[in-house]
Amino acid sequence: MLGDPERARKEMLEVLEQAREMGTLAQEIDALLKLASCDFLQGRYEHLMVLSEEGLQKSRAAYLTQLEAMSLNMLGLGAQRLGHLEQAMRYLLDCLRLGQQLMNEEAITVALGNMATVYSTLGHHEMALRLTEQSLEISQKIAFVPFTANMLANLAQAHFDLGNHEQALGMAKEAIGFAHNNAMSRFECYARVTLTDTLLALGRAQAACRVSQSGLRVARWAMDAEGESLLYWGIGKAKLALGELDKAQEYLQVSLDFAVQAKSPTQELDVQETRLALAAAQGDAALATQIGERITKLKDQLYSSDVQQVVQSLTAQLHQQLNPGTTAAILPWDAELMELTRTLKRANMSLAHRAAHEPLTGALNRPHFQLRMQKQLDSLQPGDLLGVIVCSLDHMKTINELFGQSVGDALLVSAVHRLRETLRSGDLVGRLGSDEFVIMLNFMAQEEDLEHVMHKVLHALRQPFEIRDQLIHITASLGGVVVPRDGQMVEALFKNAELTVQKVKAGGMEHRSFMPT
Predict the structure, then answer these.
(1) Which DSSP state fits 392?
(2) GGDEF domain spans which residues (predicted)?
(3) 471 in the Ramachandran plot: left (φ > 0), alpha (ψ -120 to 50) or beta?
């Protein structure tokens, strides 16, 4: 089935029709879940959820607990691929509970392995590695070949995520060989992307490109949209590393198209983050801003729920329902559970921060700055005053050409740090574009405070920056507006402030501020 999911789909549809005609419920549910597996291999995650939910309801009604456990696993797998991490954890923990009650090692290994994928998505790579190793051990013990292929690929990825490049290299090669020999295209694609990333990390971009290119035929043959997205993404990353920016753009766009076709937000997020790096390398600030906004929306979609609370409460239920002796063999004991809970809490805080801030300077990204600004505007009382300043650093393109992109990036980071030191703790700093930042001054005492702060900012930015043993001098052009005097709508205020910056630059007033009247 894994080799040719489309042929398997046709066969399973015939089996399903026969089972329904004969009234053999167990066979019907089994066919539903095998159809869902075909959907997974072809990236049809929404349809997978529909089939698996039908299997779950029918298996529960008939007390077919083994099929119930496998339905829960498929639902967890589909929810994870669609980015619903809280829902995925709920399904997978229920699957693990049933697997342990039934002493069903197949259900246990798939639950552990797919839980590891959720932890990996959350950035908790050590736990992902631990659960993957445990799942792989069980699947090899029971000769569960499909999941062995899956876990070999995931184990390579876990080692890569932890920076264990030599282990990742060997494991990825083993996973590719195992998946290829057993005609499991999706898991071969997973392993090829990990091998591509590992080779890139080791500075072997040409070899990395060949690894992903050679896997395309397999993904196309299996009609695997997400698999093709993964491999085109790998080629795009390799081309970016080689400095072939036009080729990188072409391959990344194809990868993005396949990710959208597969309805996989996790894969789209990966591709979009690489496209953001490409836009920065091309100096396309407008495209970078557009991609950044899409990344923020995807992260909001993926990480908005507090997964830590769900893990804590559902695992506590597991401790109550399962036999302590069997639980200890599979789940962390209480002390480790407490540490896991704390780690997940930190991970969620980190993910929330990443969703709100742009990665280079740590300033708020534009969508979240606008959101915070709108909340402040909504809470304004009569007599309250806010200030908005747009700050454009001058001649950054020249600085990048003279000193290099890395020095320019370090300068931007230092400039944001200096802005924060100049402002009050309650004021906000956001990044609008490659060299343009925005400041919101909360609750000014009088309108004149805006100009006073603008002069402080200009003075702070005039002081030389020491970047890699070099003193660099910069200037800035500022434009400011007062709320409510100059508007009370976020976009209008941004527009007014940016127009004042353009007037400052057009008038050659580089070291001065300008405010509309």
Answers:
(1) E
(2) 384-517
(3) beta
Estimate to the nearest angstrom the gap between the alpha carbon of 226 and the chain centroid.
Answer: 15
The whole-model pTM stands at 0.56
Q: E strands within 289-443?
A: 386-393, 428-431, 436-441
Please give the pLDDT value at position 326. 40
Q: CA Rg, the chain, in Å?
A: 27
Instruction: Please check whether the two domains, 1-138 and 366-514, share a CATH topology.
Output: no
The pLDDT score that the predictor gives to residue 253 is 94
- What is the C-alpha separation between 329 and 317, in angstroms, rounded? 17
Q: Which residue has the higher pLDDT, 350 or 169?
A: 169
Residue 191 token pair: 């392993």
Helix (H) or strand (E) holding 45: helix 45-61
What is the four-CA torsion angle of 58, 63, 65, 69, rounded to 10 degrees? 30
Q: Residue with structure tokens 């930015």?
A: 461
State the Cα–Cα distance between residues 504 and 393, nearest whole angstrom: 12
Domain boundaries, the chain: 1-138, 366-514
Q: Is 332 helix (H, G, I), strand (E, B) or coil?
A: coil
From CA 423, how far away is CA 456, in angstroms rounded? 9
CATH of domain 366-514: 3.30.70.270
Q: What digits encode the pLDDT tens for the residues 460-515?
A: 999 999 988 889 999 999 999 998 888 888 888 888 888 888 888 777 655 455 45
Place of tokens 């893990």: 311
With 90 as the cut, is the pLDDT of residue 248 above it? yes
State the Cα–Cα distance between residues 410 and 396, nearest whole angstrom. 12
Q: Which two tokens stand for residue 242?
A: 């080689």
Q: What per-residue confidence (pLDDT) applies to 251?
A: 94
Confidence band for 349, pLDDT divided at 50, 70 and 90: low
Span 1-138 CATH architecture: Alpha Horseshoe (1.25)
CA–CA–CA angle 244, 249, 250 (5° rounding):
100
C-alpha–C-alpha distance, residues 477 and 390, integer Å: 8
Q: Are 439 and 429 spatial neighbours (Cβ–Cβ below 8 Å)? A: yes
For residue range 45-89, what is the model confidence (pLDDT) as tens digits?
788 899 899 999 999 888 888 899 989 989 998 888 777 777 888
Q: Structure tokens of 289?
A: 């801003």
Tokens linked to 385: 């005053």
